[in-house]
Amino acid sequence: MGLMAMSAASARAAAVARHGGVSQALASGDLPPIATLTTAEALVLGLLRLDVRTYFVVLGHGTTELGEALRVHAAAGTVRVIPCRSEIEASHAATALRWVAGEQCAVVTSIGPGALQAAAASLAAHSDGIGVWHLYGDETTHDEGPNMQQVPGGGQHAFLHLLSALGPSQVLHTAQALPSMLRRGATVTAHPYRSKPFHVLLPINVQPAALVDFRLDRLPEPRQMRVGAAAPGEGYPAVARLLREAPRVVIKVGAGARGCGDLLAEVADLIDATIVMSPSSLGIVPDSHPRQMTVGGSKGSPSGNHAMEQARTLVVVGSRAVCQSDCSRTGYPAVTQVVNLNADPEDVTHYNRTTTLLGDVRATLVELIAALRALADDAPASPAPPADDEWLTECQRQRHAWDVRRDRLTHAAPVHDPVWGRAVLTQPVAVRVALDWVQRHGHVAFFDAGDVQANGFQLARVEHEGWFFTESGASYMGFATSAVLAGGVARTPFHGVALTGDGSFVMSPQVLIDAVHTGTRGTIIIFDNRRMSAISALQVDQYGTDFATSDGVPVDYVAWARAVQGVHGVFGGFTEAELEAALEQAHRNPGLTVVHVPVYFGPDPDGGMGAHGRWNVGSWVEDTQALIERTVI
């Protein structure tokens, strides 16, 4: 970009800043509607028009021109650029920002290994339905010979072939295709029901290419995209009658039912159903609701799994039926009929014997409730529901037993651990203390993959949405630690708290540096049992011993944290009182705090929440698959 071009770009950025957006600047006439500019600058303006204002970047030779366009706009204050030490961290932080704050954002990397790292981390956003822009450098379109860091071998667009296996992707091979690329990406990242990352490959020589006399109003604007309620072929009265007459109904709630807790509770009352949660749906229906049986699945609770096991009718609401959520498709052995409310065609048809309700979940629930109410008002003229007064009572007995057990496990005394050579807190106790602290101060909790995550969603008492986030889709180690960065860069900052194991923390510790650089206030709690305990426990359960999932290397995480100027490291202690005191230090600290908590691992049954479902892995495969073959749905 030459000096004259830089001056013109700066003038355009200043106009956008003065009016608060591209559309407003165009409408005022302050931003000329026709301009000659680089493709990189047009991309930044186009993303700004789509309200993408935050960029998590690891720049390299593959994105120098895009970096320059971002520099100009960052100087004008139209965008915020967050330099990161790792493409994986950048991807996770962007996912967390979009997930918690709802802010459109982008990840920028160079060509080659960095792009592949960001793409790998985008599995979390893909799995959890989070729309994020991913902008990567790519080989030149002139094919003058091998480009450094491109995928080795002959032929073009090797990266596109790789990324297309993940999801929607596009090479901006021709600068003039920018408006259509932006429209396509906006549809993917802002999809109202199943948003995803959109991967854009930017050839090195296309980024500085000039768009001559380009009409800026060709850059697309955001669009509202919603579908209406489902249109069941049988009609809502028929579906209502089916559910009112159905025996032993369980409602399985997925993340696609966000914001529908009030309607789900009403439906459950109208059809005398129990409710079972997925890990990612906690809080949609309050934990205290009398029909809520907590989490079901491979790592579910005994009460949630009992409701699934004993149900005869299944109502799915916004759930993808991930393997751990429905015990590898064995979670409903007695179910013979399904009603599925979903906005995704694949999800709504997942089970056999299904009445499909394809449409907006909330709008569909409203229509279904109206039909159920009408049926109840006309009760004398309609068949009475089956007499099964025991269904709710039976499930509530199981829930009460689980509550008693949950309370006992989360208040257990410290247990002697041979690795630490003394009594330490159990993980359920330490996680419960941490979650109590998070809720007391209105912080936001992020769970990392592993044993901390499984214990967390089993023991948590989540009464409302918006503060409890568990990355259970891809179960990506290092997500929670990276996610803390989002709290410091959000337009309305929040105190993010990573609940992570020692195994997950060391996967992605770069936030120790980047949090200081961005002025992020947050907390990382490391629950340290010197191993990847989720896998160790799985090995012990399946084969009687663990292997290659632990080491004898002690790490002083407090010293590691304090080695980064601006990070406060504090030891979490060996008792509840010591941990609570350490967490209060973290709350008072204006920056990033790392709290190191030794926790127990071993055969003591009170040392963890336990696993109460089936999973099609390891030595359990034969029995699980045999049960799948006998399952009707």
Essential attributes:
single chain, 633 residues, alpha/beta, Rossmann fold, 3 domains, 6-stranded parallel beta sheet, 23 helices, 17% strand
What does this structure look like?
There is one protein chain. This protein has 633 residues and is of the alpha/beta class. The chain folds into three domains: 3-218, Thiamin diphosphate (ThDP)-binding fold, Pyr/PP domains (Rossmann fold, 3-Layer(aba) Sandwich); 236-395, TPP-binding domain (Rossmann fold, 3-Layer(aba) Sandwich); 410-602, Rossmann fold (3-Layer(aba) Sandwich). The chain has 23 helices and 22 strands. The strands form five sheets. Strands 3-2-4-5-7-6 form a six-stranded parallel sheet, sandwiched between helices. β6, α8 and β7 (198-203) form a beta-alpha-beta unit. The N and C termini lie far apart (61 Å). The mean pLDDT is 94.
Write the layout of secondary structure elements.
Blueprint (H helix, E strand, L loop, with lengths): L2 H17 L2 H7 L5 E5 H11 L4 E5 L5 H13 L3 E4 L3 H15 L3 E5 L3 H16 L4 E6 L19 H7 L4 E3 L6 H12 L8 E6 L6 E6 L20 H10 L3 E5 L7 H11 L2 E4 L14 E4 L6 H9 L2 E5 L19 E6 L2 H4 L5 E5 L2 H17 L12 H20 L5 E3 L4 E3 L2 H15 L2 E4 L3 H9 L8 E3 L8 H11 L6 E6 H4 L5 H8 L3 E7 L4 H11 L13 H6 L4 E5 L4 H13 L3 E7 L22 H10 L3
Parallel strand pairs: 2-3, 2-4, 4-5, 5-7, 6-7, 9-10, 9-12, 10-11, 12-13, 13-14, 17-18, 17-19, 19-20, 20-22, 21-22
Antiparallel strand pairs: 1-8, 15-16
Helix pairs in contact: 1-2, 1-4, 3-4, 5-6, 5-17, 9-13, 10-13, 11-14, 15-16, 15-22, 17-19
